[in-house]
Amino acid sequence: MCLTLATGFAAANSKYAGFVIDAKTGKTLYSSSGNSLRYPASLTKMMTLYMVFEAIDSGRISKKTRIRVSKHAASEPPSKLGLRAGQTISVEQAIYALVTKSANDASTAVAEHLSGSESEFARRMTAKARALGMKKTTFRNAHGLPNSRQKTTARDMARLGLALREHFPHHYHYFSTRSFKYGKTRFGNHNRLLGTVTGVDGIKTGYTRASGFNLVSSVRKDGRSIVAVVMGGKSGASRNAHMKKLIARTLPKASKRGGGNLVARVSPDTQIALPKTGPVPKFRDVTEVRVAMAYAKPEKAKTFPIPLDRPVVGREALIDTLKKQKAVVAPMPRPANTVAVVEQGSKQSGSVDGVTTASTGQPSGWVVQIGAAATRQDAEQLLAEAQSKTGGMVAKAQPFTVITHRDGEQLHRARFAGFDGKSHAWKACKALKRKGYGCWATEQ
């Protein structure tokens, strides 16, 4: 596929890799060493920004949140803003710094703020990469400075570019930023194709001596759309020239038809740590399995472990919702030779808790499951958040939790009941998925 484009540019250059994908159909328009391992350099910051956008959308942080800079972050080598240990920077300033200046000090500060340490953030970056289908990518830091174990492929970077466009259209405009002023200094975007090549609207450049000059470009023009990747350029100028040729020769071959949405939306739970209270299930990092559960057909979903939840709004919000609805989920009669595991509510003996938790005494009919937690309270919190964010038939559904055991660990499944048949349950699932929740519907 257009392999002649690589001739000359890739000659005697073992670092080179190129890949172009039709963003509407998923068709590969060009590939040269597209699946070969390469160093991402500052293309790494694409994933760092993905994690930031996800944290904003989940409510963990806002654009105004202040990030404190550690000594470790301040000591990162250039490219950097020159942040000092102890000072703070807003999340939005950090976004601009990563997009334009490709600031390593801001990248590390973001990682430490979101995950406590850069190494933990890198672990979550890798888990997110797997969940997005980036099968060969491994991250060891948040900025892309040299690390022999930090590897990716041109194909994987194209997939990440697609994910940023598809999952965060409301944040994607940052990648088109031409310059950013911090203090008294204005930093220009390293991406020189912005404003010089019609249709280019981002995304990111990268360079280290080991990687060569890298670039991921998003292009939308005349109803066509592509994401193109060039890795291992010998100079910024030659990399840019090659990218221009790739765009010129592949964009006309892209389709004007196709729905896009090529990368399935992944719930933010792969990024956020589980509550520290209660046992942590051993399978929490098997993101491929979690994603398979979230998007599998209901009859197959039962064979997969369920996704874990995230810290959300308090239990009181759920109880208030239940009071307004005047809804009580009563346990169903259980079959002989079974034992229902029902947790006592927070009220005194003789009262009925608004949320029933049982292994067998649970509502019948169609139910939807959105996750599981190490504690009952956290499962209830997840349900309350889902109701408040999703509305519609989800707001009218009956929340309940169910105890389950896996590999010796106890979990509390978060479920909704009270749906009028299969179609209503499936519509509820679609609404929940649009809000970022993993979900499956099944009949009990």
TrEMBL record:
GO terms for biological process: cell wall organization; peptidoglycan biosynthetic process; proteolysis; regulation of cell shape. It holds the Pfam family Peptidase_S11. One of its GO terms (molecular function) is serine-type D-Ala-D-Ala carboxypeptidase activity. Substrate binds at K204. Keywords: Carboxypeptidase, Cell shape, Cell wall biogenesis/degradation, Hydrolase, Peptidoglycan synthesis, Protease, Signal. The keyword Endoplasmic reticulum does not apply. The keyword Transcription does not apply. PROSITE patterns: SPOR. The active site is at S42 (acyl-ester intermediate), K45 (proton acceptor), S102. Residues 360-444 form the SPOR domain. It comes from the Bacteria. Belongs to the peptidase S11 family. This is D-alanyl-D-alanine carboxypeptidase. It comes from Hoeflea prorocentri.
